[in-house]
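Researcher: Please predict.
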Amino acid sequence: MISQPAPADKSPYHNLATKNNLKIDFRPFIHVEGMPVKEVRKRRINILDHSAVILTSKTAADHFFRVSSEMRANIPDTMKYFCVSQSIANYLQKYIVYRKRKIFFGDKTFQSLISLIQKNNKEKFFVPLSDMHKNQIPALLDKHKINYTKAILYRTVCSDLSDLKDVYYDVLVFFSPTGIKSLFHNFPDFQQNSTKIATFGRSTAQAAKEAGLRIDIEAPKPEAPSMVMALDKYISEYNKNHK
């Protein structure tokens, strides 16, 4: 079980399944919900008090424009957009006439965006974030004395997995601490027993250990930088030892 949405047909997971004769199911253990506008209003946040917006993901863009619309805030053409990556910048075409706006983008890291933000430090920045955002973002803005407002516009919540109560998998694959939280939220009495747990990233591994889980497959590693490679390596070694 991969605790993420099903990927495109050409995903390496499909190659992994074919190569090793596996049955792989995909199911998101978490999902994103927008914060109700009334909750945003309680924080006395006014989007139009700002002259620039910092977008760290396409989801952040979606909820920025959703909340703007629901608050009837007519975003002016002069608004500047600072995006972590070019793909997020291009995504803005869903909402605005791209060629008529001032849009800046980094190289997929928030750190790469800081120099562009510093060059425009007279702006007042609006930063839409998730409740699970990285602390690095406000920390860097504070460090460089940027004038900004942090706004939690969406949150990550546990998905309902009750239909899986009597379904058992040999391997459960997790990509975030919230995925681990969702497992125990849905199945408080979960016992790992012979089920193999795979985790991606340090924070996910830490959450699994704190929850009392045994990690059998961990990525990224030098010999397996991706989860697919880690799974493939584990399966190959398992098959060798169980011939």
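Model: The beta strands are 30-34, 52-55, 80-83, 102-105, 125-130, 148-158, 171-174, 196-200, 215-219.
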